[in-house]
Design a protein that fits this description.
The chain is of the alpha/beta class. It has 2 domains: 26-131 and 269-316, Response regulator (Rossmann fold); 134-266, Response regulator (Rossmann fold), CATH 3.40.50.2300. The protein has 11 helices and 14 strands. It has helices at residues 3-24, 40-56, 71-83, 100-108, 134-148, 166-178, 197-210, 222-234, 249-258, 269-286, 326-330; strands at 28-33, 59-64, 88-91, 112-116, 127-130, 154-160, 185-192, 214-219, 242-245, 263-266, 296-298, 304-306, 312-314, 319-322. A 6-stranded parallel β-sheet has the order 2-1-3-4-5-13, with helices on both faces. It has a 4-stranded parallel β-sheet with strand order 7-6-8-9, sandwiched between helices. A two-stranded antiparallel sheet has the order 10-14. Helix 7 (197-210) crosses helix 8 (222-234). The structure holds alpha-L-rhamnopyranose.
Length: 333
């Protein structure tokens, strides 16, 4: 080996050793606890959280959650994170109340707890990061339903996630409040697919049978919307029944191409995960265990996030996807 080559080998060795040390020496560990693993929406949020960790430095993201969307599964995960003595937990909850005792215990031990996406009741977290304004999300879902119908008239049904999911329940309540703005729409049923593809598919099939007049299925869940579009396609009802709601462009491209869905909406899940990790890190840095309306927290490239009433903050507006932009965005999330 020439001395030059030997030096290059040594340098590479030193770099890899240093990288190993840096990974071990993460002085802040932030757990991202999601509704369930295997959900593309949360994988995208984790991508954002990882990006944040890299920017912050010395920070590790522990991406975790139960295998199915239950509060019990999340409680087990939280208890294990308490014994691991993580610095912060950012959770998207399967139930607003069931997680509170476990999260209170975490906070009593100094762990900074926030919820994002699907919130926890105020007693169980320092703050809740909403992806957008809840009334706006509800109204957007109805507008998409009306847009799918000639003259905005017809029966609609909702295919949700779990019956206890904080975010979907708030959005459904907001849709109901916004119904008077869409007098042509008639909501005839709400069913739950639990953010499981097979259950969402079967619930859609049952819905198509029990409510043959339904013209739009609104699924405010990225798992449900894909399954509903598949069920409509398999039932040979493309053009007769439209699927809309909240979904990922990468997962909905097929449904847009087949015509099962004309359009749907979502915010940027990468930005959401990025901001959740940034907020959690800021609370750890400041050793801050409470927030009040008007407080500002640092969120890296997203700027400062201002806390509103009830310790809640909201990010940007949902964006609509259709045949004109689906290919462009399906490459991103
Ligand atoms: C599913 C989850 C998540 C929700 C998205 C739109 O992935 O239910 O909580 O925000 O859909």
């Amino acid at each position: 080996m020439t001395s030059f080559k030997r030096m290059a080998v040594l340098a590479a060795l030193a770099a890899s050793l240093m990288a190993g040390t840096a990974a071990q020496a993460a002085d802040t560990r932030i757990a991202l606890v999601v509704k369930s693993l295997g959900n593309g929406f949360f994988d995208a949020a984790n991508k954002g959280a990882e990006e944040a960790a890299k920017e912050i430095g010395g920070t590790e993201i522990i991406y975790t959650g139960p295998t199915s969307t239950t509060a019990e599964g999340q409680i087990e995960v939280i208890n294990s994170l308490i014994s691991q003595k993580v610095d912060a937990i950012a959770v998207s909850a399967n139930d607003p109340d069931a997680l509170v005792p476990a999260l209170k215990k975490a906070m009593q031990r100094g762990i900074k707890v926030i919820s994002f996406d699907s919130g926890v009741a105020p007693a169980g977290r320092i703050l809740q990061l909403n992806p957008s304004s809840n009334p706006l999300i509800g109204e957007t879902c109805l507008k998409l339903a009306a847009d799918a119908l000639p003259e905005g008239k017809g029966e609609i049904a909702i295919l949700s996630a779990t019956a206890t999911s904080t975010n979907q329940n708030i959005w459904i309540a907001e849709m109901k409040k916004a119904m008077p703005k869409f007098p042509g729409l008639k909501l005839v049923a709400t069913v739950y697919g639990d953010d499981l593809s097979d259950k969402s598919y079967r619930e859609t099939q049952a819905l198509l049978k029990s409510h043959p007049e339904v013209k739009v299925i609104v699924a405010p869940t990225s798992v449900g919307i894909v399954a509903a579009a598949q069920a409509v396609k398999d039932a040979g009802k493309i053009g007769e029944v439209h699927v809309t709601g909240l979904g990922l462009p990468s997962e909905m491209a097929g449904a847009i191409k087949s015509g099962a869905s004309k359009s749907f909406a979502i915010w940027n899940p990468i930005d959401l995960g990025y901001s959740a990790a940034m907020l959690a890190s800021d609370l750890v840095k400041k050793d801050q265990s409470q927030v009040k309306a008007g407080d500002k927290l640092a969120a890296g490239r997203m700027g400062e996030i201002t806390i509103g009433e009830g310790g809640e903050a909201a990010m940007s507006v949902p964006f609509t996807y259709d045949a004109s932009n689906i290919d462009q965005f399906s490459k991103i999330f």
